[in-house]
Design goal:
By secondary structure, this protein is of the alpha/beta class. It has a domain of 230 residues: Spore Coat Polysaccharide Biosynthesis Protein SpsA, Chain A, CATH 3.90.550. Helices cover 39% and strands 9% of the residues. The chain contains 14 helices and nine strands. A four-stranded mixed sheet has the order 2-1-3-5. A three-stranded mixed sheet has the order 4-9-6. Strands 7-8 form a two-stranded antiparallel sheet. A hairpin with a 2-residue loop joins strand 7 and strand 8. Bound molecules: 2-acetamido-2-deoxy-beta-D-glucopyranose (NAG) (4 copies). The site of one 2-acetamido-2-deoxy-beta-D-glucopyranose (NAG) has 7 residues, from loops.
Amino acid sequence: MKSRVGSQGSLEEGKDSVTKVVTQYKPLSIRLLQFLLLFLGIGIVFSLLSMYMVRYSVMQNVIPMVQSRFQPCFQQLSLESWIRPPSSLLHSMNDTQLFWRASIVPQIKEYPFNRTRKIAFMFLTRGPIPLAPLWERFFKGNELYSIYIHSLPSYRPDFPPSSVFHGRQIPSQEAKWGRMSMCDAERRLLANALLDISNEWFILLSEACIPLHNFKAIYHYISKSRYSFMGAADEPGPFGRGRYNPNMVPEVNITEWRKGSQWFEVNRKLAVDIVKDDVYYPKFEQFCRPPCYVDEHYFPTMLTIESPRLLANRTLTWVDWSRGGAHPATFGKADINDQFFKRISESSICVYNNQPTSLCYLFARKFAPSALGPLLEHSTKFLGF
Ligand SMILES: *[C@@H]1O[C@H](CO)[C@@H](O)[C@H](O)[C@H]1NC(C)=O
Ligand SMILES: *[C@@H]1O[C@H](CO)[C@@H](O)[C@H](O)[C@H]1NC(C)=O
Ligand SMILES: *[C@@H]1O[C@H](CO)[C@@H](O)[C@H](O)[C@H]1NC(C)=O
Ligand SMILES: *[C@@H]1O[C@H](CO)[C@@H](O)[C@H](O)[C@H]1NC(C)=O
């Protein structure tokens, strides 16, 4: 009212009212500024809070937002958080860091929880696993297993979410046959599998392998064995002792030199021994190069020196060398019949827990993709699943 009068009245009056208005507006603009700053402050606090919450819920593996909002800022450590397997096999550790982490072993032998003992099936492959449908059928209805795949780093798998192979790829590097990089890949598989405390036995397989029995039979055979199935033989001749290099002394004496199949099964203790080794590794890396094939000598020799009494000294994986040459026979569609599986099951007598047995092999190789059809068709009859 007054300012309106002022604007219509004399200059004097107008001037007076202007100063009055200014003095009235000055605290108002400061208040406005304060108000805006308060708003800004609240805004910043809120955005920081929500950034923290997003990170927190990502770390918690996507707990519903409502739940995480009411969680306290600190999380109580529980036993569960130590024994739960990693939710994703992807990690940013390099081999040095991964092997260190994998070599951590509890010193109290009795577990304060009911530990389920699983078999880790470790697939060392180049790319796809053509016999995957057979393995899917093998694993179906069972729980005491976990799967790990090491493939060429360039390979992008496309297993559907319903597959047992989905998301089971570990961070991989190139591995060359007969070279130390092959043993590196095998140690990488063991180290990744060791991160799950439930894994008690570790089996190395290739994309050309098949199981010869059903899961329960294989689990029983391995879990009841007193020994680990690492092939280890003291072989005279050029392909055995002939590959030994005297520079390996004193770590490896020629009497301790062993040869065995690359495809092994070891228990958790031996898996840790392999991953943590820094005594034999440098010797093999330097002195076992083609025509010394390190994947046939390193683990068999090392474990024979360290833990001879834990080894069965034979492999569980059947393979046919009878045709001669540098590589074993590959079997396709036409080979899958009664005689073939009879031949495998009657091929030898071996020792199981110090008793003779004819059940010597749980796996077989090498199978071409074309074998998949007849194998699936007759899996109940030939393989028991
Ligand atoms: C892994 O990273 C650590 C730390 O950066 C480094 O000391 C080590 O040499 C690396 N190991 C490999 C195998 O690259
Ligand atoms: C483990 O399982 C057994 C029987 O299944 C039960 O009696 C025991 O209390 C369980 N122990 C723990 C630590 O959960
Ligand atoms: C290897 O071991 C045998 C018996 O254990 C021993 O007689 C021989 O001297 C050793 N050789 C070397 C090169 O150390
Ligand atoms: C395996 O061979 C080692 C010697 O190389 C021996 O001490 C051990 O008893 C053998 N294992 C079995 C089950 O015979």
